[in-house]
Design a protein that fits this description.
heterodimer, A: 211 residues, two-stranded antiparallel ribbon, B: 292 residues, alpha+beta, 4-stranded mixed β-sheet, 3-stranded antiparallel β-sheet, elongated
Chain lengths: 211, 292
């Protein structure tokens, strides 16, 4: 019985990219959990578990700023890969095929497909909205009374941005763990199999393997 | 106060134990700005009764020696020299402080369980032990009343002397007023007294626009004003003409919450159904070695 040929794994995420991803994930989960506690009285118990509501309130904005800083690093390293191209638009028109797992019928994607790019930009723009409105909510007494519409607006925009990112986050976690097998390993170990790369990111595969 | 039962609680899931369990009249303070002389005795009485630490006064060539209310300065007379159409001045003085709204914006906006309560008699009170210092009440109040203490990370305001009222006493400011422009009693009595005074001002004192300030946009208030000119409330140190709980707070606590809950729960159900219907994606194994 001859040994199977060694499989070449393809590097998909550098160490730095993975560290940034997981730092963002941890920071986001913290502000998500504490934010949900303040979102609904029925979820206030989350703040109690996380060390009490005043503690949660103390850390929520600070970790929020940490999240924004990590997102800035992520934006710098991925902005080139996240530009939406003509190929993506064709992919977007056929997105139902993707949802129904008929991937053969889709135009090939580059390093990230349109869905991943959408998620990225939702988190970037949602994060910017949360940062700006969060700053107002953090220091409302610095907003002059005649600019009080900023306070009122910040309340609504903050929670609206949060809900949009939560929707995207649910889909992201589902796809990264259950739907696209190999995706979760790739963001932990940084590597994928050639078959995985060809199936999901053909253009990227061709580019990095020089084919 | 233990003997004042609570009818409304901020950030609270479930029932409110005190709701409807006590026979209580709505209480109210009536402030007759037409007989206020701006002596600030009410300010001193408030500081005295509540043992509030002193603040530095300021001087800018007016009587406004305290620029604004503060976490340790709950009531304040706002002075305004109001130019009349005939060129003369009218000196307006209004005792500012928490209005004890029947429909309080602070309470609606507060996410902390039990940090803001409304007693059966209508007094809106902050419970600093439950406060988390988020200052959403600051954003929710249409009168700019709650004030933040940066050291303790808690918010403070006038309690309408709930500790005194709970014992059958009037608020401290009422006791101190030398002209009797401050009144305290049931909301109905105060409303009637204010209306009679406004009528008197209209009929006998030449104030054709005199009226009682009890804004319906916040469900009426537990602190009412008699004003010489009800059509120009802003002249009284920025008293809003038609205050409302901010509509953004209403949308946030109403439709947006339901929409958000639906989206979050729907999202979780949606991805679960997707997995049951379509399952995970298959990697097409088209490599020569056949490795996955």
């Amino acid at each position: 019985m001859s040994p199977r040929p060694a499989v070449t794994r393809i590097k998909r995420y550098s160490m730095e990219e993975r560290v940034v991803h997981w730092a963002a994930a941890i920071a986001y989960c913290y502000v998500l959990a504490t934010g949900l506690a303040f979102y609904s009285p029925h979820l206030y118990w989350i703040a109690v578990i996380l060390g009490g509501a005043p503690t949660s309130r103390f850390w929520h904005p600070i970790i929020g700023v940490v999240f924004a800083a990590i997102m800035a690093i992520m934006l710098r390293s991925w902005v080139g890969d996240m530009r939406i191209t003509a190929v993506d638009k064709a992919w977007g028109r056929a997105m139902n095929r993707y949802i129904e797992n008929e991937d053969e019928a889709l135009p090939p994607s580059d390093r990230f497909n349109l869905g991943q790019k959408y998620f990225f930009w939702v988190m970037v723009w949602g994060g910017i909205g949360l940062l700006l409105t969060g700053a107002i909510l953090w220091f409302p007494e610095l907003i002059p009374w005649n600019l009080r519409f900023l306070r009122y607006g910040a309340i609504l925009v903050h929670v609206a941005c949060a809900l949009i990112t939560i929707g995207a986050f649910i889909i992201h976690v589902y796809m990264g763990t259950a739907m696209v097998r190999g995706g979760f390993t790739s963001i932990i170990r940084g590597e994928v199999s050639p078959a995985w790369a060809r199936t999901h990111h053909r253009l990227w595969y061709d580019r990095v393997t020089g084919k | 106060m233990a003997n004042l039962r609570i009818q409304r609680i901020s950030g609270h899931a479930g029932t409110v134990a005190g709701l409807g369990t006590q026979r209580q009249e709505q209480v109210a303070k009536l402030i007759d700005t037409t007989t206020c002389i701006g002596c600030k005795a009410c300010e001193v009485a408030c500081m005295e009764w509540n043992d509030l630490p002193f603040r530095e006064t300021t001087f800018n060539n007016t009587y406004q020696t305290m620029p604004d209310t503060a976490w340790n300065y709950w009531t304040l007379i706002r002075f305004n020299e109001h130019p009349r159409e005939d060129g003369s001045f009218q000196w307006l003085m209004r005792k500012d402080g928490c209005m004890h709204c029947a429909d309080p914006g602070c309470l609606a906006a507060c996410p902390a369980d039990g940090a803001i309560v409304q007693y059966q008699n209508g007094i809106v009170d902050f419970q600093q032990d439950n406060c988390i210092g988020c200052q959403y009440c600051v954003a929710g109040c249409p009168f700019n009343i709650p004030k933040f203490n940066a050291q303790t990370k808690r918010v403070f305001k006038c309690t309408l002397c709930s500790d005194r009222v709970g014992q059958g006493l009037e608020p401290a400011c009422i006791k101190a007023c030398p002209t009797g422009c401050l009144h305290f009693g049931t909301k109905d009595d105060m409303r009637a007294m204010g209306s009679a005074r406004a009528q008197q001002l209209r009929d006998h004192s030449g104030f054709a626009n005199a009226g009682v300030y009890d804004p319906p946009g916040v469900g009426g208030t537990g602190v009412m004003y008699v004003l010489h000119d009800i059509t120009n409330t802003e002249a009284y140190g920025g008293l809003p003409a038609d205050p409302h709980v901010p509509w953004t707070v209403r949308i946030w606590k109403g439709p947006l919450k339901w929409l958000g809950n639906l989206a979050m729960v729907g999202g979780l159900i949606g991805v679960t159904l997707h997995y049951l219907r379509f399952g995970p994606k298959q990697v097409k194994d088209d490599s020569p070695g056949g490795a996955k």
